[in-house]
Write a structure and sequence with these properties.
The structure is a homodimer.
Chain A: H1 2-12, E1 14-21, H2 29-42, E2 47-51, H3 59-63, E3 71-73, E4 76-78, E5 81-82, E6 85-88, H4 105-117, E7 124-130, H5 137-145, E8 151-156, H6 160-175, E9 180-191, E10 198-199, H7 206-213, E11 218-224, H8 226-234, H9 237-240
Parallel strand pairs in A: 1-7, 1-8, 2-6, 2-7, 8-9, 9-11
Antiparallel strand pairs in A: 3-4, 5-6, 9-10
Helix pairs in contact in A: 1-4, 4-5
Bound molecules: adenosine-5'-diphosphate (ADP) (2 copies) and zinc ion.
Chain lengths: 250, 250
């Protein structure tokens, strides 16, 4: 299939591909993916960020580039650069930002292949892929067509409910023979700014339990922090690096 | 198609159908769906809970019925009852709870139709449907095949990122001519138990802003509360009712 070949050709010019995933929604996949991309760009690497969470395309807002759209140069369509990062997301293709993406499986698959095959990403050191929750069409399209993925970063929160779904994502990665780089536990605890009390709002040790069970590395435990949420809402991820010890777990 | 007809026949015996959805993951859809179901059952109504979040089936654990499976009586397959609520979820059909559901769109569609058409739900006063994030196959299957849905409950958190995706879900509901019962804002604030300080961890007024913009009712603002999370992790939703003013927003 020509679309798959074009997408595979694009990937040949990209040294490292990292998939940020989780079986569970709302655990912080986009937050981790965006900050990983920014951290790598700050080190001077050529970084691309592909948002394959087609229904919930949040990375452009988080990076602060709501107005940047893909643009045509000759025959090529180029990804816009935001904060030095090349970004492609369904949010850039909507006539109106508030309209839903109402696609069934097959359309999602061809959209992902087009985002890779029809966009001139050029040479990249890293391509970070932000995924939707679940183990459906989007992830299958990536894992079935690209065999040289460096690995997955799997994000969880400490809660038992989150572990249930994240465990499925770990087994999915294994099933598809995709290396797991490690686990990231997000929203590990909250420290009250007023009195210093530490609150384990979403529970404790979800990341540790899964890391031990599957012999994975727990790369980082990121606390709940208002600055993280407000930076992402305002599109200022770089400012997030002001709290280096809680940032990109890499 | 015979499957659709069977599913539509099942729905004829159900008085009210409520779809709990959100464009965003991890905002508390399952938490709201499970507690709404429990609240209705506590009032003596006949309630069913259908989990169409096929990849992230959490409602059975939250209800406390991990071991309850669908069972055969004559020609019928009956949904198990947990806490007086009939429940069907993909988690009941897995050989091993940790294995992922690796289905593409068409399989998801037939699974949902089978969950309705091949299961003997009997007469119900309410069927609550817990949805995955996004506006893809699962929601399309429900909205395209069942025209007598009472309405959707749309769950958001206060954050701007969450509003982006939830706004798409609102427009999707409108696009499909499905009534919106109202918005529920979850994780509105956190009160430190030690010093009483109120923390707006995920921002403020996301629910109000959307409710005003789309002329919807903001049914409830549920605070972040450790008891809510630990009850759901332990499968004791009824205990949650110990804090009536923050519970099911109905
Ligand atoms: N450590 C954190 N502290 C506070 N808020 C966070 C943190 N991580 C993520 N968030 C917020 O939680 C919400 C969900 O995060 P997001 O990255 O969108 O998750 P996902 O991509 O898994 O759906 C967003 O509003 C985000 O700003
Ligand atoms: N108000 C709340 N306070 C504390 N934890 C909550 C609250 N609402 C939901 N949670 C927890 O947040 C996580 C996400 O909730 P869940 O209902 O699974 O969301 P969704 O169905 O939208 O993915 C779960 O671990 C749940 O226990
Ligand atoms: Zn305090």
């Amino acid at each position: 299939n020509a679309m798959i070949e074009k997408a595979q050709n694009t990937m040949k010019n990209i040294s490292h591909k990292i998939v940020v995933m989780s079986g569970k929604g709302g655990v912080g996949k986009s937050t981790v993916a965006v900050n990983l991309a920014v951290a790598l760009a700050l080190e001077g690497r050529k970084v691309g960020l592909l948002d394959i969470d087609l229904h919930g395309p949040d990375v452009v807002r988080m990076l602060g580039g709501n107005s940047a759209k893909p643009y045509q140069v000759g025959n090529d369509v180029l990804p816009p650069e935001i904060n030095g990062i090349k970004v492609i997301s369904t949010s850039q293709f909507l006539k109106d930002e508030t309209s839903p993406i109402v696609w069934r499986g097959p359309l999602k698959t061809s959209a992902i292949l087009e985002f890779l095959g029809d966009i001139a990403w050029g040479e990249l050191d890293y391509l970070i892929m932000d995924c939707p929750p679940g183990t459906g069409d989007e992830l299958l399209t990536v894992f079935q067509n690209f065999k040289d993925i460096d690995g997955t970063l799997i994000v969880t929160t400490p809660s038992v409910v989150s572990q249930d779904d994240v465990e499925k994502a770990i087994n999915f990665s294994k099933m598809m023979n995709v290396n797991i780089l490690g686990l990231v536990e997000n929203m590990s605890y909250f420290v009250c700014e007023k009195c210093g009390e530490k609150h384990y709002i979403f529970g404790q040790d979800g990341g540790k339990t899964l890391a031990e069970k599957y012999n994975l590395e727990l790369l980082q435990e990121i606390p709940i922090n208002k600055i993280i949420r407000s930076n992402m809402d305002k599109g200022q991820p770089a400012a997030y690096f002001g709290i280096p010890d809680t940032v990109a777990p890499f």
